[in-house]
């Protein structure tokens, strides 16, 4: 019977399942040519199915050297994730690893299913902006395959993490709007399952001390969603609309222009991440500059340390800076 991929599988498990001795498994691991091809293949199949991976040689059992890193993202259509993955790929490729990328469709259950499957197929796993709940992360934390969280922090699971200081960055955007005289704002929020979105909303709630009163509207983190929710945002009579990411802001700006709403004269708009689109919208988008390349590079460094059996370096929250562009201005009277 196959065991769960998250169980710590030993050479004894492989021997029992393959109905051979521990010595035979050891010989297959070490490439001993004296083991018959049929028997060796059976041991490899069992080892791969059970996820037996105690050291580098064991990676040869199922399909040769893995030299692969699994990456799971919620939405490959979001250029933010592409930029992080690109930076990760540079470091991984330099050391002979390739990335195996999967899209969870922003579904926590699908993400967990993919992650569990990948555990026995790759050397390490990166979860970008993971939506998996606490129980799911705790399960992954017990795996023998190294797992690192990217742009999420979860102290309870104990999983190593590299993340952006989303709270401080959003607080900076709120301060910018407050200085411009804004008081009534709408927040177009993304997935409630996303740690970074919870951090951004927490900052907006704290911004009440600056005089900001926010209405929250939950939307998908897409351009289409920004277009679809423009009228709903305007119904609250805001002087500013804060978008949880730049994609929503791009769609919102498009629809506001179609409606004849002037930005920033009638309403200010902010985004988050500073994807390439942000510098080419009309008007250009005020946003928080998320250090995507640094996020990808540092994530790889943490995972690489785990692969080497070393203690990963502690990485403080990465700073995101606010850039003021044409989409924000003084609040209308």
Distance between the termini: 71 Å
Total of DSSP H or I helical runs spanning 4+ residues: 13
Helix content: 40-55%
Largest sheet: 5 strands, parallel
Overall domain count: 3
Pfam family, one: LacI
Protein name: LacI family transcriptional regulator
Keywords: DNA-binding, Transcription, Transcription regulation
GO molecular function, one term: transcription cis-regulatory region binding
Question: What do you see in this structure?
Answer:
By secondary structure, the chain is of the alpha/beta class. It folds into three domains: 11-63, lambda repressor-like DNA-binding domains (434 Repressor (Amino-terminal Domain), Orthogonal Bundle), CATH 1.10.260.40; 68-163 and 292-316, Response regulator (Rossmann fold); 165-290, Rossmann fold (3-Layer(aba) Sandwich). Helices cover 41% and strands 14% of the residues. The chain has 13 helices and eleven strands. The protein has helices at 11-18, 22-29, 37-50, 60-63, 79-94, 108-118, 134-141, 166-179, 195-206, 223-228, 230-234, 246-258, 292-307; strands at 68-73, 98-103, 124-128, 147-150, 161-162, 184-189, 213-218, 240-243, 268-270, 287-289, 321-323. The strands form three sheets. It has a five-stranded parallel β-sheet with strand order 2-1-3-4-5, with helices on both faces. The protein has a four-stranded parallel β-sheet with strand order 7-6-8-9. A two-stranded antiparallel ribbon has the order 10-11. Helix 9 (195-206) links the parallel strand 6 and strand 7 (213-218). Helix 8 (166-179) packs parallel to helix 9 (195-206). It is elongated, with a radius of gyration of 24 Å. The N and C termini lie far apart (71 Å). 48% of the residues are buried. Mean pLDDT is 90; it is low at 1-6 and 54-64. Keywords: DNA-binding, Transcription, Transcription regulation. Residues 9-63 form the HTH lacI-type domain. GO terms for molecular function: DNA-binding transcription factor activity; transcription cis-regulatory region binding. InterPro entries: HTH_LacI, LacI/GalR-like_sensor, Lambda_DNA-bd_dom_sf, Peripla_BP_I. Pfam families: LacI, Peripla_BP_3.
């Amino acid at each position: 019977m196959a065991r769960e991929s998250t169980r710590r599988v030993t050479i004894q498990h492989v021997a029992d399942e393959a109905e051979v001795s521990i010595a035979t498994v050891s010989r297959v691991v070490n490439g001993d040519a004296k083991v018959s091809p049929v028997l060796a293949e059976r041991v490899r199949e069992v080892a791969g199915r059970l996820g037996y991976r105690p050291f580098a040689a064991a990676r040869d059992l199922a399909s040769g050297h893995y030299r692969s890193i699994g990456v799971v993202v919620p939405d490959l259509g979001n250029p933010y994730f592409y930029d992080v993955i690109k930076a990760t790929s540079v470091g991984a490729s330099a050391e002979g690893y390739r990335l195996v990328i999967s899209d969870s469709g922003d579904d926590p259950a699908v993400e967990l299913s993919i992650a569990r499957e990948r555990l026995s197929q790759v050397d390490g796993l990166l979860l970008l902006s993971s939506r998996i709940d606490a129980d799911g992360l705790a399960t992954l934390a017990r795996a023998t395959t190294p797992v690192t969280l990217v742009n999420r922090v979860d102290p309870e699971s104990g999983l190593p993490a590299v993340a952006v200081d989303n709270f401080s960055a959003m607080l900076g955007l709120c301060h910018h709007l407050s200085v411009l005289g804004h008081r009534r704002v709408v927040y177009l929020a993304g997935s409630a399952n996303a740690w970074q979105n919870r951090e951004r909303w927490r900052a907006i709630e704290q911004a009440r001390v600056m005089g900001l009163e926010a209405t929250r509207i939950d939307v998908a983190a897409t351009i289409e969603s920004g277009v679809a929710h423009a009228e709903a945002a305007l119904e609250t009579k805001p002087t500013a609309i804060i978008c949880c990411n730049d994609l929503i802001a791009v769609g919102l700006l498009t629809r506001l222009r179609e409606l004849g709403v002037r930005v920033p004269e009638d309403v200010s708009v902010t985004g988050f991440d500073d994807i390439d689109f942000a510098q080419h919208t009309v008007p250009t988008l005020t946003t928080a500059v998320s250090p995507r390349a640094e996020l990808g590079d540092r994530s790889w460094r943490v995972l690489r340390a785990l692969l080497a059996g070393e203690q990963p370096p502690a990485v403080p929250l990465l700073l995101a800076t606010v850039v003021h562009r044409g989409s924000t201005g003084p609040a209308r009277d």
